[in-house]
Amino acid sequence: MSDISNEPNPTTMDDAATVSQPVAATPTSTLSSSTPMPDPQKPRYGRVVLISLVSGAVGAAAIVCGLKFGGFLNMPLTSNTSSAGQTISIRTTDEKATTAQAVSKKCLPSVASIYVASSSKNYVGSGVVLDTNGHILTNYHVVDGAETITVTLNNTRYEAKVIGSDSSSDLAVLKIDPNGAQLTPIEVADSDSLVVGDWVMSIGSPYGLDQSVSSGIVSSLYRSTMLPSASGNTIYANLIQTDAAINPGNSGGALVNAEGKLVGINSIIESSSGSNAGIGFAIPSNYAIKVAKTLIEGKQVLHAYLGVSLQTVTASNAARNKLSVNQGAYITGVTSGSPAAATELKEGDVITKINDDTISSADALILAVRAREVGEKVKITVMRGSEEKTFEVTLGSDESLQGSAAGSARRGDTNNDLTDSAGANR
Fold this sequence. Notes:
Elements: E1 4-5, H1 53-70, E2 77-82, E3 85-90, H2 99-107, E4 111-117, E5 122-129, E6 135-138, H3 140-143, E7 148-153, E8 156-166, E9 171-176, E10 199-204, E11 212-228, E12 233-242, E13 254-257, E14 262-270, E15 280-284, H4 285-296, E16 304-305, E17 308-313, H5 315-320, E18 328-334, H6 339-342, E19 350-354, E20 357-358, H7 362-370, E21 377-384, E22 387-394, E23 396-397, H8 402-408
Antiparallel strand pairs: 1-14, 2-3, 4-5, 4-7, 5-6, 6-9, 7-8, 8-9, 10-11, 10-13, 11-12, 12-15, 13-14, 14-15, 16-23, 17-18, 18-19, 19-20, 19-21, 21-22
């Protein structure tokens, strides 16, 4: 079984794990990879092959027609300057340029390499330029524990500091002083408009090889997972899955579409080796930019909150405790004054659905709640004994929990189990 991990150190997931925690934000694990700063390498160029004059005229005409109708001769670059800084648009003309070449030229100036020194190691990550003031978005696990942070952008090095972070969503914002340099903020797309099969490019510093690109497609959408660490869990909801290569050092870098616009922040990979295996995940740009704006404003990032402690129902513990269903999220406790308490959810209820989404485990419930907004109304279906009940719940905010959740939330021991129908923890 492959591992889903904050690269480069994979962490094994267990779908049958028991979880006992409030449905709220919890901390993340640290990404680190000791990679020396690489020397720049020059590109290699192939030979130009000359075809014969006789066959060339006919052949060239056919090729031009094919490329024209295929759209490969219709992607030049035009640049302009706006209040957000220099932008480059890809539009139709007769100039030769492939999509990958055009997108690379447009986006590379907007992606930085981030070099982090901590007490135990040095490592590299990536970041995305948000504005001309020097704000750079990256993953929290890239800068967690950093003592010094150096950003390399367009062959210039800057000292950086963290001005805000949200460990539970694995995002952080850095600030550099451009010192008069003109920065190129990345253009942002609506990540909700992505569909499976869309062309995408990953940009970052894999293994310290800065300004590296790789292309692929959107393999799937709305993937969610939760990664455990010593201090808690990082919750990733509604991730973009891609086969564009993401390796250690790509964390915090850009996933962009065929228009050269940001659709995601590269964050984790699924791999048994810790390197690219064709399955990577990015935080959608809509969510990432929303968090970044909140952090830049100096505000706290809030997450949807239900207010229950949970355990996963499995076939074995359901049979032992005579439960009426063999999967779901078993409520072991309800927090006083929480949205769950306001709607009469009770200890012993097994949550089986949120709206029309089936809930198969405690983790699935946490991820389903986290994927929603504070104040959103949802329908929660439970089995109470042999009776099915549905409650409408207005999700609250985890603001009051954020100071304490980091120390108390944990991923349950996979050997724990339900001991009776009341749901007591062993």
